[in-house]
Write a structure and sequence with these properties.
- There is one protein chain.
- The chain is of the alpha/beta class and 269 residues long.
- It has one domain: Rossmann fold, CATH 3.40.50.720.
- Helices cover 44% and strands 14% of the residues.
- The chain is built from nine helices and seven strands.
- The protein has helices at residues 3-8, 35-46, 59-71, 86-100, 124-151, 174-194, 212-216, 222-227, 237-248; strands at 26-30, 51-56, 75-80, 105-108, 155-160, 199-206, 259-262.
- A seven-stranded parallel β-sheet has the order 3-2-1-4-5-6-7, with helices on both faces.
- α2 (35-46) packs parallel to α3 (59-71) and α2 crosses α9 (237-248).
- The longest helix has 28 residues, at 124-151.
- It is globular.
- The two termini are 25 Å apart.
Length: 269
């Protein structure tokens, strides 16, 4: 199924009016070039963020996203950064702080999903890529974001996990599911450690969302998948972005260590 056909399975993008919930904040996004990362960066701009610093490995797409952020009225900056390497995560955070004087909010979105196959058929290289992207990169990002947020007087972090980290709904994605379960646990542990220091850490767990990753996953018949959801449709990246921005905002001031499942009812069914 091509991308346009997949997007059609989600129907029209729901329109939700921004309310300025991130007004004046300096925000950061990893894995920003497309999909949920790009949509969230743009939503941050629409929600009034003073600056949105985005990082990733695909420079052309990253620079294009930064241009879109500036067109939306925020100070958008792309930083070439591979957050699976600690130097990349550190550079991204330090650039935000040096350029804008502080960091208020971060969305850790970088992720990778293996091609669907039984566990015994997966290779060491695939294992390394999945866990380096979904766990190691998250650890590096948190390790540098948290001190920056504490130094700024507090703030919020949202980690992009997955419904597969809560309950594995598909066979053939065991490495992805295990890595996302680790990301959920890391989120909750870090949240307990830093809540008293003014840093709120939560996670969003998307379900079936129309992204490049979903298109490449090899997960069965997409029409059947969409029809099996309670909403009878896939989700849009923009719907996840709205949830992330709420978790990052002061409106979620009493929400800590939570995993918000934005899944169209998948886990409830």
């Amino acid at each position: 199924m091509d991308e346009s056909a997949l997007i059609a399975l989600a129907g029209p993008v729901p329109v939700t009016k921004p309310s300025g919930r991130l007004a004046g904040k300096v925000c950061l996004v990893t894995g920003c070039a497309s999909g949920i990362g790009r949509a969230t960066a743009l939503r941050m701009a629409q929600e009034g963020a003073a600056a949105v610093v985005i990082g990733g490995r695909r420079q052309a797409l990253g620079e294009k996203a930064a241009e879109e952020l500036r067109a939306a009225g925020t100070d958008g900056l792309f930083v070439p950064a591979d957050v699976t390497q600690e130097a990349g995560a550190e550079r991204l955070v330090m650039t935000a702080v040096e350029r804008f004087g502080r960091l208020d909010a971060a969305f850790n979105n970088a992720g990778y999903q293996e091609r669907r196959a039984a566990l015994a058929e997966q290779t060491d290289a695939v294992y390394a890529r999945v866990f380096d992207t979904n766990v190691r990169a998250l650890f590096y990002s948190l390790r540098h974001e948290i001190p920056a947020l504490v130094a700024s007087g507090g703030g919020a972090i949202v980690n992009n996990t997955s419904v597969s980290g809560v309950r594995n709904p598909n066979s053939g994605l065991s490495l992805y599911s295990a890595s996302k379960a680790a990301a959920v646990s890391l989120t909750r542990s870090a949240a307990m450690e830093y809540a008293a220091r003014g840093v709120r850490i939560n996670a969003v767990a998307p379900g079936r969302v129309v992204t490049d990753m979903m298109l490449a996953s090899g997960v069965g018949d997409m029409r059947q998948v969409a029809a099996g959801l309670p909403l009878r449709r896939m989700g849009h990246p923009e719907e996840i972005a709205a949830a992330v921005c709420w978790l990052l905002s002061d409106e979620a001031s009493y929400v800590i260590g939570h995993v918000l499942c934005a899944d169209g009812g998948l886990l409830a069914a």
